[in-house]
Design brief:
Helix content of chain A: 25-40%
Helix content of chain B: 25-40%
Order of helices and strands of chain B: EHHEHEHEHEEEHHH
Distance between the termini of chain B: 34 Å
Structural class of chain B: alpha/beta
Structural class of chain A: alpha/beta
Oligomer: heterodimer
Strand order of the largest sheet of chain A: 5-4-3-6-7
Largest interface: A-B, 79 and 57 residues
Number of strands of chain B: 7
Chain lengths: 467, 201
């Protein structure tokens, strides 16, 4: 048998039908659902008189619209947001799917809840009407975002019509330097490939620096595979993965655990398997990074300066000029001189316990700059509870951060947490697009530790200066 | 779904690269539970000023481009969020074809589910089409899906590639779910096998 990549193995195990032209029906093991991209899909089912084929494999949780302030127990004030969340309440009930409502302690961002509850397991196919579904690839699951029509397709048939992508290997060799995190890895890779560099590929991340990451870190890396244009990101499961999964509410137990482990241990890329594209970065060369523009590929080490548009080629010259103007920056300006007024720690990229620990480590015994608006939004109610137990919440509150309830919050401004025009935010989220965090708002993407450092000094800051 | 017919209409130029789905339709408009009526907010933040007035400089607001049916866009069009609201808004505006040198994966898939034809062309052809689109309303392009051909207002013909299954579905207005349900027995068989092999799933 010819050697296979990890992606080949998972793909082959899920093809329910292959047509002569290579179009496949790919079977879906887990379907995650949130309130924004699903109402039209459920409506489509109703209109056609169809059922959810595998409700036991379908999990729903509201996250995009939910307010993150304590008063949300009294209901959602914005009528449109409320209707969307109520529609999910009703759809979950009517179609009999697993559901974590707003006021359940397990509620949170769908990509944090899935792994936390043990729904996401190695070797699975996982989809969700959300591009950051790539997150679940950290478990060695083939996971990607889909549109609403495809959500309806999966609800009705538990399959997706797919053609296989190409294989890309991204290897991060060696060790990371102090102050450098999973977020810096994933941003550095996008800086290298560009936001379209992964189009048509599934990426497998490997190498010593990836192996050394916790599951939280691996989820951060895979989460942003989509920002590099890839359909999915994957990391082969290992002891770190099994350790994380074991004992989770929906993970297999007893004899089933043993059977699962037997298969999971075969989920790695065979020696000599073919990759269509290979990218290698040295872990030692990766610095703490920030974005300067309005595309995640606009990334530079914190020690660098805002580039000159004419340094680019082709369409990027105009795009860079537009970005620099939108961001209110000057070409040549040092990134560490850029003053910020808002700090957001959270999102499916960096809203897990390890992210909060990293930020709290920097903030311990310190205060945020006067006038700074800073918030921490744990990725789930359980992350929040754990952070309170570990004393992290006190560190954040003492430093001057707002300590919020779980949700997508300011990552995408579909809820009350938004930037005002011209406000500038150091954000641990995943997109710095124009208007992403609120119309006219300006976003600099960075790691949780770097966000904490910026909150203290009031400007983009090299976290290594505070370590 | 409606059958995709030959399109003969105004093509608008949007040369900016990396136009993301937040630009195509900002999140404030994602709170709908319907698919229709989003055309009016297509490219919302570029198309309107903060006070809600139209930005006259924006291409689709110019008299020549108000009836645009074909969009010639910069590289990596549709990147970012998976929101299908982006193709819903494009369709609702009246745009039936988007041409670029590359598209983001999820957006590209979403187009086909909504009867929109996304066409990938080589850079040199893209430049010809972009130049033609800059000519305004007098320059009407023709997109012929059956023949896989774009004809510029000057009569220059450019061929394009498309997946045969997707072409067939567009031309015949076929609904994916209905097609897949015809293969139900394959799915049943797969499930039986998978339940044996991986009972923990």
């Amino acid at each position: 048998m010819s050697p296979k990549t990890l992606y080949d193995k998972i793909w082959d195990a899920h093809v329910a039908h292959e047509a002569d032209d290579g179009t496949c029906l790919l079977y879906i093991d887990r379907h995650l659902v949130h309130e924004v991209t699903s109402p039209q899909a459920f409506e489509g089912l109703r209109m056609a008189g169809r059922k959810v084929r595998a409700p036991e494999k379908t999990i729903a949780v509201p996250d995009h619209n939910v307010p993150t302030t304590a008063d949300r127990v009294n209901g959602i004030e914005n009528p449109e947001s409320r209707i969307q969340v109520e529609a999910l309440d009703k759809n979950a009930k009517d179609f009999g799917i697993h559901y974590y409502p707003v006021n359940d302690v397990r509620q949170g961002i769908v990509h944090i809840v899935g792994p936390e509850q043990g729904w996401t397991l190695p070797g699975m196919t996982v989809v969700c009407g959300d591009s950051h579904t790539a997150t679940h690839g950290a478990f060695g699951a083939l996971a990607h975002g889909i549109g609403t029509s495809e959500v309806e397709h999966v609800l009705a048939t538990q399959t997706l019509i797919q053609k296989k992508s190409k294989n890309m290997k991204v290897e991060i060799t060696g060790k990371l330097q102090p102050g450098v995190t999973a977020k810096d890895i994933t941003l550095a890779v996008i800086g290298e490939t560009g936001t379209a560099g992964g189009t048509g590929y599934v990426i497998e991340y490997c190498g010593e620096a990836i192996r050394d990451l916790s599951m939280e870190g691996r989820m951060t890396v895979c989460n942003m595979a989509i920002e590099g244009g890839a359909r999915a990101g994957l990391i082969a499961p290992d002891e770190t993965t099994f350790e994380y999964v074991k004992g989770r509410p929906h993970a297999p137990k007893g004899a089933q655990w043993e059977a699962a482990m037997d298969w999971w241990k075969t989920l790695f890329t065979d020696e000599g398997a073919h990759f269509d594209k290979v990218i290698t970065l040295r872990g030692e060369d990766i610095a703490p990074v920030v974005t300067w523009g309005t595309s995640p590929e606009d990334v530079l080490p914190i020690t660098a300066s805002v580039p000159h548009p004419e340094d680019f080629e082709g369409g990027k010259v105009d795009a860079a000029r537009r970005s620099i103007e939108y961001m209110g920056l000057e070409a040549g300006q040092k990134l560490s001189d850029v003053e910020i007024d808002t700090v957001f720690i959270g999102s499916c990229t960096n809203g897990r316990i390890e992210d909060l620990r990293a930020a709290a480590e920097i903030l311990k015994g310190k205060k945020i700059k006067d006038g700074m608006r800073a918030m921490v939004v744990p990725g789930s109610g359980l992350v929040r509870a754990q952070a309170e137990e570990e004393g992290l919440a006190e560190i954040f509150k003492d430093a001057g951060f707002e300590w919020r309830l779980a949700g997508c919050s300011m990552c995408l401004a579909m809820n009350p947490d938004q930037l005002q025009p011209g406000e500038r935010c150091a954000a641990t989220s995943n997109r710095n697009f124009e208007g992403r965090q609120g119309r006219g708002g300006r976003t600099h993407l960075l790691s949780p530790a770097m966000a904490a450092a910026a909150a203290i000094t009031g400007r983009l800051t090299d976290v290594r200066e505070l370590m | 779904m409606e059958k995709f017919e030959k399109v003969h209409g105004v093509a608008a130029p949007m040369p900016l690269i990396n136009i993301d789905t937040d630009m195509i339709i900002p999140k404030v408009h994602l709170k709908t539970i319907k698919r229709s009526g989003l055309g009016v907010v297509l490219f919302d933040e570029m198309r309107y000023h903060d006070d809600g007035q139209e930005n006259e400089e924006f291409v689709l607001n110019k008299p020549a481009y108000r009836q645009t049916e074909i969009l010639v866009a910069g590289d990596n069009f549709g990147c970012g969020s998976s929101r299908e609201h982006a193709p819903w808004a494009i369709k609702d505006f009246g745009i039936k074809v988007v041409i670029s040198t590359s598209f983001a994966d999820i957006f590209f898939n979403n187009c086909f589910k909504n009867g929109i034809l996304p066409i990938v062309v080589e850079e040199e052809h893209h430049a010809v089409l972009m130049e033609d689109a800059h000519k305004g309303e007098n320059a009407r392009m023709t997109v012929h899906l059956e023949d896989q051909k774009i004809t510029t207002s000057d009569g220059v013909e450019i061929e394009f590639e498309i997946d045969p299954h997707r072409k067939h579905c567009l031309l015949n207005g076929l609904d994916d779910i209905g097609l897949t349900m015809e293969k139900d027995h394959h799915i049943d068989k797969f499930e039986d096998h998978a339940n044996q092999a991986r009972p923990w799933v």
